[in-house]
From TrEMBL:
Name this protein carries in UniProt: ASIC2 protein
Gene designation per UniProt: Asic2_1
Gene Ontology terms, MF aspect: ligand-gated sodium channel activity
Keyword Membrane attached: yes
PANTHER family per the UniProt record, alphabetical: ACID-SENSING ION CHANNEL 2, AMILORIDE-SENSITIVE SODIUM CHANNEL-RELATED
Gene3D superfamilies membership: Acid-sensing ion channels like domains (2.60.470.10)
Cross-referenced InterPro entries: ENaC
Similarity section: Belongs to the amiloride-sensitive sodium channel (TC 1.A.6) family.
């Protein structure tokens, strides 16, 4: 700014004042140009990402959680189960009578209709004093059992079975986690991707045991199939939020890639 004194000085010669004006404008232009460049760079909120690729001979195989879309098997309901949980399941009205629309749906199967009509007749029924309620034991007893659903299981070409899965309970009821890494279950690893180097399973979803789908209800589903989530052993399964659906009658391939952010 001291150049302003020389630019406005009446005692300085005109050529000298012109040189000072030129120098001042040049310096001011450079200052504004650099400042505007830095300001735009700051407003862009720049970030620096460093990616490092590390090769490994083997990687831990992720945990795979499977859930049947149907939480409870309809034919396994007892009279006590229907008495206490029928309204929660959307099968009974608050006064413990069968929903009319459900009755209409069951009329197509005469044997099933007679069975349910007898089950829902509480006229001479004495409710048990102590009932387990809607608990983990209740879901475990009435949920789909992996021994009945699992038709085939292979991991890296070797046979596996229900003993390789751990039971977990979610909003879908009783689910099963492969490679949970829990005590007594060594963490499985894989050396490469591709078909034949991971988990291959075939399931029977037991759709004939699904709860009747009669309308909107929180505990009944309009979908048949299984919900699957692939996750690490360090995080619990959030199948409802992060899982994907697998429809019956189709073969589904799933590929995963691990990314670690630090």
């Amino acid at each position: 700014l001291h150049g302003l004194r020389h630019m406005c000085s009446g005692r300085a010669a005109l050529p000298r004042r012109a040189l000072w004006v030129l120098a001042f404008c040049t310096a001011l232009g450079l200052l504004l140009s650099w400042s505007s460049n830095r300001l735009l760079h700051w407003l862009a909120f720049p970030s620096h990402t460093q990616v490092r690729t590390q090769w490994s001979r083997q990687l831990p195989f992720p945990a795979v959680t499977l859930c049947n879309n149907n939480p409870l098997r309809f034919p396994r309901l007892s009279k006590g189960d229907l008495y206490y949980a029928g309204h929660w399941l959307g099968l009974l009205l608050p006064n413990r009578t069968a929903r009319p629309l459900l009755t209409e749906l069951l009329r197509g199967d005469e044997a099933r209709f007679r069975w349910f009509a007898k089950l829902a007749d509480f006229r001479l029924f004495l409710p048990p004093r102590h009932y387990e309620g809607i608990s983990a034991d209740f879901m475990d007893r009435l949920g789909h059992q992996l021994e009945d659903m699992l038709l085939s299981c292979k991991y890296r070409g070797e046979l596996c079975g229900p003993h390789n899965f751990s039971a977990v309970f979610t909003k879908y009821g009783k689910c099963y986690m492969f490679n949970s890494g829990e005590e007594g279950r060594p963490l499985l690893t894989t050396v490469k991707g591709g078909t034949g180097n991971g988990l291959e399973i075939m399931l029977d979803i037991q759709q004939d045991e699904y709860l009747p789908i009669w309308g909107e209800a929180e505990e009944t589903t309009f979908e048949a199939g299984v919900k699957v989530q692939i996750h690490s052993q360090s995080e619990p399964p959030f199948v409802q939020e992060l899982g994907f659906g697998v429809a019956p009658g189709f073969q589904t391939f799933v590929a995963t890639q691990e990314q670690r952010v630090s």
